[in-house]
Design brief:
By secondary structure, the chain is mainly β. The protein folds into 2 domains: 133 residues, Leucine-rich repeat, LRR (right-handed beta-alpha superhelix) (Alpha-Beta Horseshoe); 96 residues, Leucine-rich repeat, LRR (right-handed beta-alpha superhelix) (Alpha-Beta Horseshoe), CATH 3.80.10.10. It has 2 helices and 11 strands; from the N terminus they run H-E-E-E-E-E-E-E-E-E-E-H-E. Strand 10, helix 2 and strand 11 form a beta-alpha-beta unit. The longest helix has 6 residues. The protein is elongated and about 65 Å long.
Length: 238
């Protein structure tokens, strides 16, 4: 295991990249309080408590580890980007106070309750794909979002997303959605993925004239030709 001094020598412009290094113990990093960016994706980390004092961090990558408890990150209020995809997280309540976040990646975890994220109104990118989410109503106030990934969850009601009019990219593939009418007002969308749901009526999408990519495969849609006429600029993948 490397020492704190060895890690210190690897820092470039406040950034330390330790991606995919088979690291399990991050305690030698605890003293690196000058760090602003830390990349620890693809390791074997389960305990992130030694990172609790790295309050200068603005970017933290911890994707693809074995983390279940994110409470040690609660005090890292300077973070603007946090990557936690591909871990074993179910409780995101410790992240509720990280109001400076603009990008939060939580895909591929075990999250069912997203209500602790309701106050993260600075978010522009939110990835919650591959979790156990059925209720997206806590996201109703995240009106700054431009990219939202909710693929592979258990969502049937998308009406809480109707007010997220800043969205340009929305992924809803692999859910249980039949009614897409709440999406009719999201006229800023350029990419919409609805693959693998229970949709038969796509007429509410006819006004989304900014779309360039629309994914509709593995649904119950009999005819997309009216949509092709309504959305001449869109590549439609039936």
């Amino acid at each position: 295991m490397r020492t704190t001094a060895e890690y210190q020598a690897m820092i470039v412009d406040g950034s330390l990249d330790l991606w995919g290094n088979q690291i399990s113990d991050v305690s030698p990093l605890a003293g690196l309080t000058g760090l602003t960016e830390l990349y620890l994706g693809g390791n074997q980390i389960s305990d992130v408590s030694p990172l609790a004092g790295l309050t200068g961090l603005t970017v933290l990558h911890l994707g693809g580890n074995q983390i279940s408890d994110v409470s040690p990150l609660a005090g890292l209020t300077g973070l603007t980007e946090l990557y936690l995809g591909g871990n074993q997280i179910s409780d995101v309540s410790p992240l509720a106070g990280l109001t400076g976040l603009t990008a939060l990646h939580l895909g591929g975890n075990q999250i069912g309750d997203v209500s602790p994220l309701a106050g993260l109104t600075g978010l522009t990118t939110l990835d919650l794909g591959g979790n156990q989410i059925s209720n997206v109503s806590p996201l109703v106030g995240l009106t700054g979002l431009t990219k939202l990934q909710l693929g592979r969850n258990q969502i049937s009601d998308v009406s809480p997303l109707a007010g997220l009019t800043g969205l340009t990219v929305l992924y809803l593939w692999g859910n249980q959605i039949s009614d897409v009418s709440p999406l009719a007002g999201l006229t800023g969308l350029t990419e919409l993925d609805l693959w693998g749901n229970q949709i038969s009526d796509v007429s509410p999408l006819a006004g989304l004239t900014g779309l360039t990519e629309l994914y509709l495969g593995d649904n119950q849609i009999s005819d997309v030709s009216p949509l092709r006429l309504a959305l001449p600029n869109a590549q439609i993948f039936p």
